[in-house]
Amino acid sequence: MHGFANPARFLRLARWLTPLMLLAGLVLVAGSLIHSYFNMPPDRLMGDSVKILPLHVATAWLGMGGWTTIAIASLVELVWRHPLAAIAARAAAVPGAVFTFVCLATGSIWGRPTWGTWWVWDGRLTSMLVLLFLYFGYIALSGALAREGASSRIAAIFGLVGAINIPIINRSVVWWNSLHQPPSITMGNSAIDPVYLWPLLVAVAGFSLLFGGVVLARMRTILADMQAEARLRRKAMQVAEGL
């Protein structure tokens, strides 16, 4: 795990891996969404609104996956003091928030013709909205700590505490009587017809690659900003010593 703790080694890997993941992700996502819009047949109950399923489900999983990434990186930072863990957590926050917002927006669009309303305060929707607010809080907190040069351990603790919401989101449709449908995909089993399942899985794979590529790109940007700030500080100290 510490083999990539050296920023130079990490940057060498990320330099070629970032565009590869972004390009592969774009191809898979575009293929899945185009196929869903033009070729996916209407569902017997949901009609044409089923075409939004690959986008909605994929972004829901990646919204939760983004916070899971933050929690794992936070744990690594607190326990093993990995120098890139805090940067990885910060880098995952913004794309995770974007996926969560898209999930909520597409769910609202899907819910209007299906449920007859844009929003209901059921367990799944409410816990997903809480996740979006947690993202906003984490982004603000980690950004403020970085600007002040304070320890990122406070943000890491927040990342671990916020992870409590992930199993709540996952099990909310089982624990509470909900308008939201129960889990359609479980371990080793699926209640979704293959004509809808395969575009969904391709979308999940594509968005996962996009998420990974964006996280790597943001990590490279954060490292570049940190290195530029360190150079400015050294120059300032040299100027001060010369005076």
What characteristics describe this protein?
7 helices; transport; cell inner membrane; elongated; 77% helix; single chain; mainly alpha; Heme exporter protein C; cytochrome c-type biogenesis; 243 residues
How is this structure best described in words?
It is a single chain. The protein is mostly helical and 243 residues long. The protein is built from seven helices and two strands, in the order ααααααββα. It has a two-stranded antiparallel ribbon. Helix 1 runs antiparallel to helix 7 (194-242) and helix 3 (85-115) runs antiparallel to helix 7. The model has no long low-confidence stretch (mean pLDDT 88). The chain crosses the membrane at residues 20-38, 58-80, 92-111, 123-142, 154-176, 196-217.
Overall geometry comes to: elongated
End-to-end Cα distance, whole Å, is: 44 Å
Residues in helices, as a percent range: over 70%
Biggest sheet, in brief? 2 strands, antiparallel
- Beta-strand percentage range: under 5%
The structural class is mainly alpha
Mean pLDDT metric: 88
Strand order of the largest sheet: 1-2
DSSP summary, beta strand count = 2
Poorly predicted ranges: none
Briefly characterize the structure.
Required for the export of heme to the periplasm for the biogenesis of c-type cytochromes. The protein is built from 7 helices and 2 strands. The chain is mainly alpha-helical.
Write the SSE topology.
Elements: H1 7-38, H2 53-80, H3 85-115, H4 123-148, H5 153-162, H6 165-175, E1 185-186, E2 189-190, H7 194-242
Antiparallel strand pairs: 1-2
Helix pairs in contact: 1-7, 2-3, 2-5, 2-7, 3-4, 3-7, 4-5, 4-6
Protein name: Heme exporter protein C
Keywords: Cell inner membrane, Cell membrane, Cytochrome c-type biogenesis, Membrane, Transmembrane, Transmembrane helix, Transport
Family: Belongs to the CcmC/CycZ/HelC family.
